[in-house]
Design a protein that fits this description.
- It is a single chain.
- By secondary structure, the chain is of the alpha/beta class.
- The chain folds into 2 domains: about 5-135, Rossmann fold, CATH 3.40.50.2300; about 150-400, EAL domain (TIM Barrel), CATH 3.20.20.450.
- Helices cover about 45% and strands about 20% of the residues.
- It is built from 17 helices and 16 strands.
- Strands 8-9-11-12-13-14-15-16 form an 8-stranded mixed beta barrel, surrounded by 5 helices. It has a 5-stranded parallel sheet with strand order 2-1-3-6-7, with helices on both faces.
- It is elongated and about 75 Å long.
């Protein structure tokens, strides 16, 4: 039984093929047939596509599109296919350079295609089959209802009732494989026991005026975890997310130092993470805020590095202790040369400035091997573990570090 038939036993999958080379189109059709996929529509030129009412075509499970037909490129046609929602999976067939094909892949993803892969037109038939198998095996994002944001009142109540709960994603030291830290991620435990995620919390949080109270609740839990781990003989640093507006609050900075002192730990075990976009605002305010928390003893991490607008001057003057590279430049690094090169450069920047380097969003062993080869110090990601409640993390840490 074919991969496609195993995935959807109730019906045969179908495809749209847009290709002007009849021989190559035949090869594609053969490979699709071997996978149990029927070619429902075939288009051989832009002129033919222009004469077809794309929106009237029956939806298919995947579309295979040559980027350049004999009578022009297919960029505009990709827009039409996306608007018609004819397929969610897309295989782009390209004879162009890697950089051009990668740009068109990003363009297709922005248009709304859920899963996009690129195939070199010069690839052997076996590579065609592998690309199709990978495309079909990649799960589509769910069609379930979008999460409904909590109201301002609901978020404010959760903060007031101290139902903010920190979930901890492990940070692994690559040199030893041990758990050496965590990032504390915000959750709310609803009265019915349901766990509410940030996407449902943040819209309501903005109007509460209680972000500082939430930050302090997260800090108390992180400090308590670090203290408990130290009691177990484990040096686990905890990171929490803060905004530059919070760092500018003198009173809050003093309160954070007080919370850490109450738990009997040095501030060095707590790292404050600020996203790159926020750090790159008013330089005077940024330097003041950064100096304040570093003089207290907290670590300071630039989060989601690469996703904002960095200045090397600011990197050289702000006293960061850690650089966390955004998932966008980590995920797929094992197979995407441009992603790997960007990850490499980001890591080298961190090392140049004497910062600990962390790769975020590592989800596969292939990417993990690549990140290790690139010399990163630490990794976070599903390849080791998702964010988890406190007791679950303690058990995870003890097992990973050989305590049980």
């Amino acid at each position: 039984m074919s991969l496609a038939q195993r995935a959807t036993p109730e019906r045969q999958l179908s495809a749209l093929v847009i290709e002007d080379d009849s021989f190559f189109a035949g090869q594609l059709g053969q490979q699709l047939a071997r996978l149990g996929v029927r070619t429902r529509h075939e288009i051989g030129s832009l002129a033919e596509a222009g004469a077809v009412d794309i929106e009237a075509l029956a939806p298919v499970d995947l579309a295979l599109v040559n980027l350049a037909l004999y009578d022009g490129d297919c960029l505009g046609l990709l827009r039409r296919l996306a608007q018609a929602r004819i397929a969610r999976r897309l295989l782009l067939i390209s004879a162009h350079s890697y950089s051009i094909a990668r740009t068109v892949q990003a363009f297709a993803e922005v248009l709304g295609f859920a899963v996009v892969q690129v195939l070199d037109k010069a690839a052997a038939p076996g590579a065609v089959r592998v690309a199709l198998e990978q495309l079909l095996a990649t799960p589509l994002p769910g069609h379930g209802p979008r999460p409904v944001p909590l109201s301002v009142h609901a978020v404010a109540s959760a903060i007031a009732e101290q139902r903010i709960e920190a979930f901890y994603q492990p940070k692994i030291q690559l040199a030893t494989g041990e758990v050496v830290g965590v990032e504390a991620l915000m959750r709310i435990r609803a009265p019915d026991g349901r766990i509410v995620f940030p996407a449902e919390i943040l819209p309501g949080l903005v109007g509460t005026g209680s972000t500082s109270l939430l930050t302090l609740q997260m800090l108390r839990q992180a400090a308590a975890l670090s203290a408990d781990c130290l009691d177990l003989g484990q040096s686990i640093s905890c990171a929490i997310n803060v905004s530059t507006a919070e760092l500018a609050d003198y009173a809050l900075c003093d309160e954070m130092a007080g919370v850490v002192a109450e738990h009997g730990i040095d501030p060095c075990w707590i790292t404050l993470e600020v996203t790159e976009g926020e750090m790159m605002g008013d330089l005077a305010a940024t330097l003041e805020n950064a100096a304040r928390v570093r003089m207290v003893g907290f670590g300071l991490a630039i989060d989601d590095f690469g996703a904002g607008y960095s200045s090397f001057q600011r990197l050289s003057t702000i006293p960061f202790s850690e650089l966390k590279v955004d998932r966008a430049f980590i995920h797929g690094a094992a197979h995407d040369e441009r992603t790997r090169l960007i990850a490499k450069v980001c890591g080298e920047i961190g090392r140049t400035f004497g910062l600990r380097t962390v790769a975020e969003g590592v989800e596969t062993h292939a990417d993990l091997d690549t990140i290790r080869e690139l010399g990163f110090d630490y990794v976070q990601g599903w390849v080791y573990g998702k964010a988890m409640p406190r007791n679950e993390f303690i058990a995870f840490m003890q097992k990973a570090n050989g305590l049980v």
